[in-house]
Amino acid sequence: MAGKPKLHYTNGRGKMESIRWLLAAAGVEFEEEFIETKEDLEKLRNDGSLLFQQVPMVEIDGMKMVQTRAILSYIAAKHNLYGKDLKERAWIDMYVEGTTDLMGMIMYLPFQPAEAKEKNLALIIERATARYFPAYEKVLKDHGHDYLVGNKLSWADIHLLEAILMAEECKPDILSAFPLLQAFKGRISNIPTIKKFLQPGSQRKPPADEKFIAHVKKIFNM
Amino acid sequence: MSEKPRLIYFNGRGRMESVRWLLAAARVEFEEIFLDTREQYVKLIKDGSLMFQQVPLVEIDGMKMVQTRAILSYIAGKYNLYGKDLKERAFIDMYVEGITDLMHMILMFPFSPPEAKEKNLALITERATHRYFPVFEKALKQHGQDFLVGNQVSWADIQLMEVILAVEEKTPAVLLAFPQLQAFKTRMSNMPAIKKFLQPGSPRKPPPDDHYVSTVLKVLAEE
What we know:
heterodimer, A: 9 helices, B: about 5% strand
């Protein structure tokens, strides 16, 4: 009998947050084991639990999965969030790669040197409003459906909502020029599993503060 | 009638090389359009051909596909190089992601400042020999089969072959401590489609030189 997936990561968003979102949206309960110290990380490495000595690591269905994208793809396919055929999967993959690039920029912002922060934040806002959001706004406009691909909820929709909320944390009115994305945000947020995840007390993690960044840097020797 | 896939990129390896490898290994003929000028790139953007204003772009099966990983996943899925079930796909994905991380270091190397090059080269060699190659050596040793996953050639094998050759170009003796990988490399080299790709005159691109670097910077206006 398969137990609940178990997530190994620090007690913060980072690269694991997209996995928490996807499992939550799919209605899958999961456990978390937090890496609090350098020693915790070394233990995982020495146990041979980390294929490339890196986290995220998710214990799922008898596998110790690593590599965020591999983990997300597996969960999406297993829970019917990956489209109905190869072509729908191709569009989902393209869209997810875009939101991954945008969220990656936001994720790394606190780790950039202080003097580059203002410039990098401006770049994030520029990319969000001139490169990424226009692409998704156009997709929704062109087909007029509620979801990005195949008229059905997929990994791409969940990932886009996550990216929108992260971008709004950078600039609250960042969706002002994107009416369809505003409506999309409202719709997807109201899906029961996602609504639950967005409420206090869920396993969703808060944005990293300075104290947490220092803590993470210490664990990973950054 | 299905036309040949068409690859739009710079005339060099970069992020498109893995796509060339995969198509070649799947015995799929393809066409290429090379970006030499900024005007070509700006036109692609104005035409709405680039979803996120970036290349690689691959026109395939009526789609203008962007994002290297999406393109590679589609090709692997279409040509039966993605395992037989979800779990095999999971292992292929894990292996490919690790290889991609190593490949990315090599890809970015020509664009690193001269003073960082020695350090970056050492890091590539270190990661290859201590983090990535041991994983694949162990996988092959444990199951004793010819291919990484499911006893049949997959995207993971082709990607591993590509990265082995790329690292060897920088550190020729890198496979010294990896007998399984040496045998793997020989086996893969002898597969007809790959053997053909490794011969002169194939679409395989040479290692990046200064001209390639300056073309990329000029086209993307990142000078």
